[in-house]
């Protein structure tokens, strides 16, 4: 027995396609964020923040390290250098952690050049 399939109306096709594309974009964004948060240069910065008493006092625990804004032109990563603007917040305050790091050659250890915490309330 042959089934006679009716074609899907255009409106339903467009809706289905937009849901699939939106989901794919959201998943890609999430995976990129996860890749950044697992990178060694990112972990170095977080270690630096957690070992700096003045920063911890200014933000106040618990600290929230928020996702990078991937569209921010300040954020830059290539094979030998990085420049990041990481949103951070705590119980008292919030701001951005500005970071520059570099390495001598690919697959070598990253070295922090500059780390600067800029709080919204000064």
TrEMBL record:
<dbReference type="GO" id="GO:0005743">
    <property type="term" value="C:mitochondrial inner membrane"/>
</dbReference>
<dbReference type="GO" id="GO:0033617">
    <property type="term" value="P:mitochondrial respiratory chain complex IV assembly"/>
</dbReference>
<dbReference type="InterPro" id="IPR014807">
    <property type="entry name" value="Coa1"/>
</dbReference>
<protein>
    <recommendedName>
        <fullName>Cytochrome c oxidase assembly factor 1 homolog</fullName>
    </recommendedName>
</protein>
<dbReference type="GO" id="GO:0032981">
    <property type="term" value="P:mitochondrial respiratory chain complex I assembly"/>
</dbReference>
<dbReference type="Pfam" id="PF08695">
    <property type="entry name" value="Coa1"/>
</dbReference>
